[in-house]
Amino acid sequence: MNDQSAMISELVANARVAQNVLANSDYTARVGALTHIAALIRDRRDDILTTNAIDVNRAVENKVSTAFIDRLTLDNDRVEAMAAGLEAIATLRDPLGAVLAEWTQPNGLHISRVSTPLGIIGVIYESRPNVTIDAGGLCLMAGNAAILRGGSDSHHTATLLAEIMGQGLGAAGLPAGAVQMVPTSDRAAVGAMLTATGEIDVIIPRGGRSLVERVQNEARVPVFAHLEGICHLYISAHADAKKAVSIAVNAKMRRTGICGAAETLLIDRAIASTMLPQIATALLDAGCELRGDADSCALVPEMIAATDEDWVTEYLDSIIAVRIVDGLDAAIAHIGTYGSDHTDCIITEDEAEAERFLALVDSAIVMVNASTQFADGGEFGMGAEIGIATGRLHARGPVGTAQLTSFKYAVRGNGQTRP
């Protein structure tokens, strides 16, 4: 066993002890821990911002992208959002011990399916320090222990936030080992987590394509992940023009560096000549670069000619690809060919068309007449999320407390024997 594997095994041993306590803890104790941590975050806001400035200044010196800086940076509102997110999680029903289904067999056996924690969850993330709080809080509420490995760019901030979580857990009488930060930025630690079969129960990566690809390629532990968020916005011939313009600008430009940002705009040919220039002007005025097919470029002279690569690119920046399509079926076909099963939206006032889109687009999140930026566990009423899962096994869409549970069968008899 190498040094990194030994370190992960030590963290797992601590986590297992803590998780056994959490799994059998009272709901009120977990709620108390969440509220204690929220209060500590507010009390230590200045410390958090000062520490975050160290990470941000180093990132600026390294000349990383503006989108990356945005993901890394905390301000008063984002610190408050972390605290408020924990308080929102604390208002959720207890995800543990819920009877998911129950029935009685003809022989009198009563069978119930009851929710249980997943166990130890490893979360590997990059520049977003708030993931420390979201992941730790969700795991805590669902009775899981979390082993967190933040990126080197957010190391100082994430470490401080993990320490605050430990303090809040202790204040509530729960083990601080329920949330642990991997104490190194050595990339070998990631490999040790990915191969910790029998120790870590689930891995959740949160970051760019290179990180997620590595996790999916190397993991010997089950993974909840999405590779990228190539999110589409389709403007139907039956769209309301005002909604279309407003939603398009928000879906792309509210925060360009998040996985729910729209990356491709599709528009019905029947309205393209009138609607596309309006949408394009609004996006250009907001500072967005447009890359379009030949028909789109003919309508909007400021547009840059798109290449085949643009249809499969998650820009995470102020860039959007634009294509004119021949109606709903062509839009659905484009999404099916180039999409990443993350979030896709239609703008239409035709209810039948909306329902067809919802039925035929097989993404984790499918939307009608709303910004793709709502693809977020907090906006779904989950309090927060660890990420968006685009796979089809166990978890799909925002990963919140319910998605961080498994189940067991409780069978109650009265002396039955099997013939």
Beta-strand percentage range:
15-25%
Number of helices: 14
Structural class call reads alpha/beta
Report Rg: 23 Å
Largest sheet: 7 strands, parallel
Supply the CATH class of the largest domain: Alpha Beta
Short description:
It contains 14 helices and 16 strands. By secondary structure, the chain is of the alpha/beta class. The longest helix has 21 residues.
Structure, explained:
By secondary structure, the chain is α/β, with parallel strands linked by helices. Helices cover 43% and strands 19% of the residues. The protein has two domains: 3-224 and 399-412, Aldehyde Dehydrogenase, Chain A, domain 1, CATH 3.40.605; 231-374, Aldehyde Dehydrogenase, Chain A, domain 2. The model has no long low-confidence stretch (mean pLDDT 95).
